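Service request form, structural biology core

Requester: graduate student, group of Dr. S.
Request type: structure prediction, single chain
Budget code: on file
Notes: please return the result as structure tokens.

Sequence provided:
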Amino acid sequence: MKVVLAGYGSRGDVAPCAAVGRELLRRGHDVCMAVAPDMLSFVESAGLSAVAYGPDTHKQMNAATGFVLLLQNPIRALPDMVEHVTQVWAEKSATLTSLANGADLLLAGINEQGLAANVAEYYGIPLAALHFFPARVLPSGWLSSTITKQAEDAQRRALGLPEATEPVEQGSLEIQAYDELCLPGPAAEWVESDGRRPFVGALTLELTADADDEALSWIAAGTPPIYFGFGSTPIASFADTVAMISAACTQLGERALICSGPNDFTRIPHFDHLKVVGAVNHAAIFPACRAVVHHGGAGTTAAGMRAGIPTLILWSWLDQPIWASAVKQLEVGSGRQFSTTTQESLVVDLRSILTPQCATRAREIAAQMTTPAESISTAADLAEETARLGRSG
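Core staff response, request fulfilled:
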């Protein structure tokens, strides 16, 4: 069968879709992915064919900053924001419509579900979505709903579809790409009983990184370090953040392995107890660490929990507070807003997770987590079944 995946966003947004796509390709299916231009090489490194889709993610992050400004002066900024989002939707819709011609299944990341649903309706093919965080527990907000609705209406008019009276993705398969035990609050409160929102566990590629051997060699030369990483998030004053981490770990007598992500670390001073690298494979590095401190991305959270080590989440926005709440609820770690973090608070938070009780609890939860292989296999099974039912229907 032919499967088209729409996975727009940063690496954390794209990787779950790519993981399923790679498994479907392994099973002999024709698979192609639509991703942001700056994610093409990442997806191709996983062995998948990919096409550029929408703007560069850095430009999109600037647009997100504009949305924050919109909240400060909505009346003045709303028309420009609507125009921008509508234009981006139109460009992405054109790409996806061309790519999905003749497809048996359209599989979309959480950010692309609404747009992809319109394309799926246009061709009469089934849609499946990957939710790597519980989107339905997050309020959408009036402004974001208004902007998205206008872009969606314009897309449907361009496709010759009637105006939607309800969310077009309603009723489609929504694969929950995280473990049910990670969902704060009772899952039964929002998960339907008809099987349209199955939990499969986190979907990860576990690709090797250039810095893996260097990081593992440094780890082996001393006591297990604390890992610090901030995903694809640019840090305004990365040098100051490194200095804060260094001072806190010095106070505690700990070593620190820092993943810089998109931040420049070439001018960071050298510290014997600290190592800064560009990127690492979480699955290879985390088990060798004593604890993990990160921004609260869904994939990083799952990797830390699977590794069975305590977690401290220093969150900024979107779904990150959800995962901070989850690790607290599960008693495998703690969380704090990154903007309020100081050297003093970091020392306090690290002491709270670097305990035998937290380490034991982290190992207990790790034993309950779905394995990466199980997660990917189940998600691919669901995709194949959805395509098969779509053909027979």
